[in-house]
Specification:
alpha+beta; 8-stranded parallel beta sheet; 6-stranded antiparallel beta sheet; 39 strands
């Protein structure tokens, strides 16, 4: 279903968002369900189109229909593909999205490029792009009009004419959307355009963009080269995560010339952190997804280029075997996704959905590798290679991904042993109150690590001192150096997140020195006040919402902070509370001194009859209260939870199982008793 946003930058069916929780908890991550067994995957197409997932650029995520989308932009992107080495990395297509044409066809029924945006026409742009060894893509919709509110001409009923124009212009790729389709059968609409493109005699990749509504993975392998599996992505963590979870179960349907498309990349657009963008890029690559850059490269930072140009990661996406990665495990938001590679190795993504660092572990056999004395393991972001006896593990930062390539390599002994760094204990501390954390360094390799030492450092002014040994002469396979650290934040340290860094240094059997670093986050927290307080008046540790920010004392308005209305459930108006949009997760520090959370919960009235949600309260890793599915037709429901002894309390809202459309959820009169 479409998400009824009023923002002009949101179009088509908008993908839902899913939040990550602060702490690892059972049920936090919804494991990707196994897809129904598909027919045998079709063979690679004889036309040779898209034998690996298409790579390139599309302007929509960065410009939408704004005036900056024009000929100069398209040429500038093509120039940067060459200048920045992106062409050499595999990026090939420079694609135009909606708004390139005039709103009306000419007297002969032909499409007319907007002369303000493309004064020299589309063929001139295609010629420019082709001269650089690149290819040009274009956009229209399998309907009477395209998706932008201006309503540019769609291809329905004009397939042969439009395909001929595209071919004459030198177009190499067509993104074919789904708006204004007049209810005509999707298979018929997309097959008609397929036939029209083939009739031109020009090889043109057909990107089917019908948002997964008609399960194109079941019928489109002989229609287009890729098909969207979800609604549009947005530049936020929740949207990316939701799309990931929808696309993962479809792995059996992907292969050379027929790819699942979870939508374009948001890397560099500013709505996520670099850690989250690295996860986005890693996960799209391990899913063998098309890699279409969605940021304006003319304004991109070096950090953005470093992500987009990671050739080790791109090689995972572009592996000619064409397998999409499959879920090995996903308990508690700790995901292991493995992708079979043509050379027999496995790409393994250790992905942390949660809001705190987590240890994620698997084994060589679990990801599909054969028994071997040891394995070679390459970290594709650190660009370092190690040996492992079979354990594949790392402490992964919040919302982060460690992407590895593991192989049963007879030359494994040429590489140093992998030493895994970790931290035990809660990284939550009150100013001037010391806490003890335990750092760990574990030899995962088949060979011993020698002269192993560790250090832990914190912000200036913090006291960080060891309370046990910080070195050991040797670590055999599977052994761990455990070091206690007494950590104190100075009195007066403001609440917030602060960086700690755990480092190790050791020698490989060859005598080569090896170093490792694990960035960590410690949070300075404020003890909750005694008595009963409104949760909306207290600071939170973390807060995520499917659309828009969490709002204090108003509903969620889906966009900017402060755009909500008075909290209203079943006609009753509440002055205090929290307004969120599913999927949502709020975490509060309760310091083991609180007893009870109470709230009146329900779907806010502002979306009319729409919206279904369910509410949960978690005490540390345990769900202690929950509603069933609530609808807009239901009055507020009282919800009470015993949180005695919990260090952290989380308020979670799920989508009720039917998607995220209009899921505005209110924690009205939410109170904490301590």
């Amino acid at each position: 279903m479409r998400h009824p946003h009023t923002r002009t930058t949101v179009r088509r069916r908008v993908a839902g968002a899913l939040t990550a929780g602060l702490l690892c908890a059972a049920g936090l991550a919804t494991p990707a369900l196994a897809a129904p067994a598909p027919p045998a995957a079709p063979a690679a197409p004889a036309d040779g189109l898209a034998l690996t997932p298409p790579m390139g650029f599309n302007n929509w995520n960065s410009t939408h229909c704004r005036a900056e989308f024009d000929e100069n932009m398209v040429k500038g992107i093509a120039d940067l593909f060459v200048q920045k080495g992106l062409k050499d990395a595999g990026y090939q297509y420079v694609n135009l999205d909606d708004c390139w044409a005039l709103p009306s066809r000419d007297a002969d029924g032909k499409l007319v490029p907007d002369p303000a945006r493309f004064p020299n026409g589309i063929k001139a742009v295609a010629d420019y792009v082709h001269a650089k060894g690149l290819k040009l893509g274009i956009y229209t919709s399998a309907g009477t009009k395209t998706c932008d509110v201006a309503g540019f001409p769609g291809g329905l009923g004009h397939e042969a004419s439009d395909a001929r124009q595209f071919a004459d212009w030198g177009v190499d790729y067509l993104k074919y959307d789904n708006c204004n389709n007049q209810g005509v059968d999707a298979k018929q609409r997309y097959r008609t355009m397929r036939d029209a493109l083939r009739a031109t005699g020009r090889p043109i990749v057909l990107s089917i963009c019908e948002w997964g509504e008609n399960k194109p993975w079941e019928w489109a392998a002989d229609v287009g080269q890729l098909w969207r599996t979800t609604g549009d992505i947005s530049d936020n963590w929740g949207s990316m995560l939701s799309i990931l979870k929808q696309n993962l179960p479809l792995a059996p349907y992907a292969g050379p010339g027929h790819w699942n498309d979870p939508d374009m990349l948001e890397v560099g657009n500013g709505g996520m952190t670099d850690t989250e963008y690295r996860s986005h890029f890693s996960l799209w690559s391990v899913m063998a997804a098309p890699l279409l850059i969605g940021t304006d490269l003319r304004k991109a930072s070096q950090a953005t280029f470093d992500i987009l140009d990671n050739k080790d990661v791109i090689a995972v996406d572009q592996d000619p075997l064409g397998r999409q990665g499959s879920v090995v495990s996903s308990a508690g938001g700790r995901w292991v996704i493995a992708k079979e590679m043509k050379d027999g190795s496995r790409a393994v993504a250790l992905f942390n959905e949660t809001g705190t660092a987590q240890r994620i572990a698997t084994g060589a056999n679990a990801v599909g590798l054969p028994d071997a004395p040891a394995y070679t393991l390459r970290d594709l972001w650190q660009h370092r290679t190690y040996n492992t006896a079979g354990t594949i593990a790392a402490t992964v930062p919040a919302h982060g991904t460690v992407l590895l390539r593991v192989s049963a390599d007879p030359d494994w002994a040429e590489h140093p042993p992998a030493v895994e760094l970790g931290l035990d204990g809660s990284p939550l501390l009150e100013a001037a109150t010391p806490v003890t954390l335990t750092g760990t360094a574990t030899d995962l390799g088949r060979t011993p690590a020698r002269r192993v030492s560790v250090t832990l450092t914190g912000p200036a002014g913090w006291t960080v001192r060891p309370v046990s040994a910080t070195s050991v002469p040797a670590l055999p396979t599977g052994r761990t150096l455990r070091t206690g650290w007494r950590v104190t934040a100075p009195a007066g340290t403001p609440a917030g997140a602060y960086g700690l860094t755990l480092r190790t240094r050791y020698l490989a059997p060859s005598g080569t020195p090896v170093t490792g670093t694990l960035p960590l986050t410690a949070s300075v927290v404020v003890p909750p006040p005694s008595g009963t307080s409104y949760l909306g008046d207290l600071p939170w540790l973390s807060a995520t919402s499917g659309w828009g920010p969490v709002e204090r004392d108003t509903s969620n308005g889906e966009s900017e902070a402060g755009d909500g209305r008075p909290l209203t459930i079943g006609g009753a108006v509440y002055a205090k509370g929290l307004g969120v949009h599913a999927l949502s997760d709020l975490a509060f520090y309760t310091g083991k001194v609180c007893e009870k959370v109470t709230a009146d919960v329900g779907v806010d009235d502002e979306k009319g009859a729409k919206g279904t949600v369910a509410f949960e309260i978690w005490a540390d890793g345990t769900k202690v209260a929950a509603t069933g599915v609530l609808t807009n037709a239901m009055p507020a429901q009282p919800l009470t939870a015993d949180v005695t002894g919990a260090q952290v309390v989380r308020l979670v809202v799920t989508d009720g199982g039917d998607g995220l459309d209009s899921d505005h959820a209110d924690w009205a009169d939410a109170r904490l008793s301590c």
